[in-house]
Write a structure and sequence with these properties.
The complex is a heterodimer of chains A (683) and B (133). Chain A has 683 residues and is of the alpha/beta class. Chain A is built from 18 helices and 21 strands. Chain A has three domains: 280 residues, Cytochrome Bc1 Complex, Chain C (Up-down Bundle); 217 residues, no CATH class; 133 residues, Sandwich (Immunoglobulin-like). The longest helix of chain A has 31 residues. With 133 residues, chain B is mainly α. Classes of the chains: A alpha/beta (683), B mainly alpha (133).
Chain lengths: 683, 133
């Protein structure tokens, strides 16, 4: 069989999750609340960003200075805020990519769960747009690199009339306008991001958007510490007349930028497009077979709405009654959202095994697992248990098919999720003496695959959520197991003492032994170590390793030409007769066809043609200026160059020629332009 | 004769809830009528099981209405619902254990079980609803 990346990833996540649950406790386990952490980091970035914006000057000449003064004049506030802004943005990328990988590993994005996955893709793009425009605003050498490379990347697309890159060709061409546009985009993109974040969680009932408070505090403190110990600083001020040989890159946001230089913009767009397409298709690759969805039995449904309240996926709603019964509403299943988890069955007040009529139907049931046969099966398999300490294990299907070999006098009933078990079944087991104890075994603590199975189960047993487990069912005879995996469950079960009626008044069931707990100092040290490693990695990859875009003895020559050539056909006066033939509103004394001549351009260095090409005028009618923007890396030192241009009807020879020897300094940005009155201009 | 006769005080003014009150009374009366010296225990238990399920659903609906209306005594009313649900299961257990079961006492116990709640909690809800409108 071919290696299955999803399986490996799942195993890796499972191991990491159980480690994190031991270190952080399940309530604080960051891997079990990645989405909520994403929201948290977003707010940290937003709040720190608002602070920075108060002091920021959106003009390009002052931008660098205002950020420098924030960093150095008020390091205790502006400096910390700036560092928080950067590190929380990097953290957001780490969290979002982990979130995405985990949903993929757990296969929580396929089939009917496509919605959150697909709406997550624009989030991913908007996070990158926010980050890239943000780095632009600092206007240091990395910003310069970002501006120039983004220009190159965007110019591949047939979107802009003339190359964006011409805005950043040298200091003289620089305008505050474009820069102001960037600061607008840096605000607009996160606002859009927020809108999409809201859409992203739209189908999740009570989506979690706040991490556990303690975890939030610990994470914020780590970010603050990181900001104080390794403050974020600017690199040298941008100077478009020079090309910095090496730049510190934020590898969380800019990993694809070096590829632009290596492969060219078109290839990088193909990579983006391909990745996005693949991600977009993943929910249907391969197509997921969905089990039958929950079914409402109107004869047993009075529209009490408990199933609606308990559905984790917003798949149920109360709608006006459609039958003859004198009720106002009925539960309706949205088949496109129902994941057949059965939590609605566990919530239904009519789902009780005490209905002894040979067949009974609850108000809502899963067609593949009706309750009446489940009860009969339970009675039968319990009858086979003899002796003391007979256990019924209600387990979820998440861990796979369970065999009955647990070294205990036990029988197993598996459900899609433990939340499907109506509490009345537990009461039934005890009151009919079917077994001596009930074990409820679900997913790892705080990590229910069906979101609320564990919580609803615990709350129903504790009488905090409907339907309550009846008071007479002794809690001391119930054990709840939220084990990390099957091995842990077996161990826990083996060490579980016989479930006896010890204390009729016990309000809560015994938690199943979940292995030895690590002492607090060990866990605290673990938290410090794990967050320290993460913080260290964040700080390191936010600037290192430095990217060398130019060898030390190289310079850059840029052809940045925009030239409106003469019209192909000269204007000629129309005769009165010709004018009369035209429609009244189109009559004009002179006819001027607008099409212009194309530009043919050659650049020669040391007798070798470095570049040659023909460029059509822009515009639908070929009546605009032709633009050329090309970048060449050339060894520094004296170079003899020749530039030739043909911009008229002639088919050979040239209209404009300039040759000369230039002395390129290392790292120089040598720009060649063309002006209609002066011809080729360089400096 | 019916065990429980419908009385206007059983109507609290919520159409869904009143409809169910009538249905439940009809179910209890039907069970009472079927009770005789030879009635099989299974049959009684089955009927009680259905009454139990219906009444559990009824309470759920009534609680939803009360929650929507922000009824002030919701907590006490719900506690009484939960107590009644405990009780009917105990009644069912009694019927199933031959030692404790006395057919003639069952009707009286059911009637008391059902109407007691009407007299207290449901009528309080009724008065609150009337005062509200």
């Amino acid at each position: 069989m071919s290696p299955n990346p999803r399986k490996w990833l799942r195993a890796a996540f499972s191991a990491l999750e159980s480690l994190c649950s031991r270190v952080f406790t399940p309530e604080w386990n960051p891997l079990l609340q990645l989405g909520a952490l994403g929201w948290f980091f977003f707010w940290v970035v937003a709040v720190s960003g608002i602070y920075l914006y108060v002091f920021f000057d959106t003009g390009i000449t002052r931008a660098y200075d205002t950020i420098e003064s924030l960093t150095h004049v008020q390091p205790w506030a502006g400096g910390v805020m700036r560092s928080l802004h950067r590190y929380a943005s990097d953290g957001l990328v780490i969290i979002v990519l982990t979130h995405l990988s985990r949903e993929f590993a757990l296969d929580q994005m396929r089939g009917k769960r496509w919605f959150a996955w697909i709406t997550g893709l624009p989030l991913l793009m908007l996070i990158y747009v926010s980050g890239i425009t943000g780095y632009w605003l600092v206007w240091d050498v990395m910003a310069q690199y970002v501006a120039v490379t983004t220009g190159e990347l965007l110019d591949v697309l047939p979107l802009f009339g003339e190359p964006i890159s011409r805005n950043f060709v040298n200091e003289a061409s620089l305008s505050s306008r474009f820069f102001t546009l960037m600061s607008f985009m840096h605000i607009a993109a996160p606002l859009l991001l927020l809108l999409f974040m809201w859409i992203h969680i739209h189908r999740h009932t009570a989506a979690r958007i706040q991490p556990a408070r303690g975890l939030g505090v610990v994470v914020l403190v780590s970010l603050l510490l990181l900001s104080i110990v390794v403050p974020a600083v600017s690199q040298p001020r941008a100077n478009l007349d020079l090309v910095p040989a090496t730049i510190g890159l934020d590898w969380f946001y800019l990993p694809a930028y070096p590829l632009v230089q290596h492969w060219g913009g078109a290839a990088v767009w193909k990579l983006f497009g391909g990745t996005l397409l693949l991600l977009g298709l993943l929910p249907w690759l391969p197509r997921k077979r969905s089990p039958p969805v929950a079914q409402v039995s109107l004869l047993n449904c009075n529209g009490c709405g408990r199933c609606v309240a308990d559905c984790p996926y917003g798949a149920l709603s109360l709608e006006p009654r459609s039958d003859w019964q004198n009720y106002a509403s009925e539960a309706v299943v949205n088949a496109d959202r129902c994941l057949s988890c059965g939590l609605c069955v566990g919530a239904c007040p009519t789902a009780t095994p005490f209905r002894t009529a040979s067949t009974f139907t609850a108000g809502i049931e899963l067609p593949q697992l009706p309750l009446a046969p489940l009860r009969e099966q339970l009675k039968k398999s319990c009858a086979a248990l003899k002796g003391d300490d007979r256990l019924v294990i209600f387990a979820c299907e998440y861990a796979g098919k369970l065999d009955a070999e647990f070294g205990r006098n036990a029988t197993v009933a598996q459900l899609p999720c433990v939340g499907m078990l109506p509490p009345a079944f537990i009461d039934f087991v005890f009151s009919r003496h079917l077994a001596d104890g009930v074990v409820i075994a679900g997913c790892t603590a705080n990590g229910c695959f069906q979101r609320f199975g564990q919580r609803w189960t615990e709350e129903r047993i504790a009488g905090e959520r409907d339907p309550w487990l009846r008071a007479r069912a002794p809690r001391s005879r119930i054990a709840l197991s939220w084990a990390a995996d099957l091995g842990a469950f077996r161990k826990g079960l083996a060490s579980l003492p016989p479930l006896r009626l010890t204390d009729r008044g016990a309000p809560k069931p015994a938690p199943m032994p979940a292995g030895p707990r690590w002492p607090l100092p060990v866990r605290a040290a673990g938290i410090v170590l794990l967050l320290g490693v993460l913080a260290g990695a964040t700080a390191a990859f936010a600037t290192k390793p430095a990217w060398r875009q130019l060898e030390p003895d190289e310079a850059v020559v840029r052809l940045s030409i925009r030239h409106a050539t003469a019209a192909k056909v000269e204007c000629k006066p129309l005769t009165p007769q010709q004018m009369a033939e035209l429609k009244p509103n189109m009559r004009r004394p002179v006819d001027c066809p607008r099409e212009r001549w194309p530009v043919y351009l050659e650049l020669e260095r040391d007798g070798q043609v470095l570049y040659s090409g023909t460029h059509q005028p822009s515009g639908l009618w070929n009546d605009g200026a032709a633009s050329v923007f090309r970048t060449f890396r050339i060894p520094a030192g004296p170079q003899s160059i020749v530039l030739r241009m043909r911009d008229s009807e002639r088919e050979s020879g040239f209209d404009h020629v300039r040759s000369g020897t230039i002395d390129l300094k290392p790292g120089q940005n040598f720009v060649i332009e063309f002006r209609s009155d002066e011809g080729f201009v360089w400096r | 004769m019916n065990l429980i006769a419908w009385r206007d005080e059983f109507a609290i003014g919520l159409p869904d809830v009143d409809h169910e009150h009538r249905e439940l009374i009809a179910m209890i009366n039907a069970l009472h009528e079927s009770l005789g010296p030879d009635t099989a225990v299974e049959q009684i238990v089955a009927a009680l099981g259905e009454i139990h399920a219906r009444i559990a659903a009824h309470f759920a609906l009534e609680e939803r209405e009360m929650r929507n209306l922000k009824y002030v005594s919701l907590a006490e009313h719900k506690d009484d619902h939960e107590r009644l649900l405990d009780d009917i299961l105990d009644i069912m257990d009694t019927v199933e254990s031959p030692r404790d079961y006395a057919p003639e006492a069952l009707g009286a116990r059911l009637s008391k079980w059902f109407t007691g709640h009407f007299r207290t909690h449901d009528s309080r809800l009724h008065r609150w609803l009337a005062g509200r409108s």
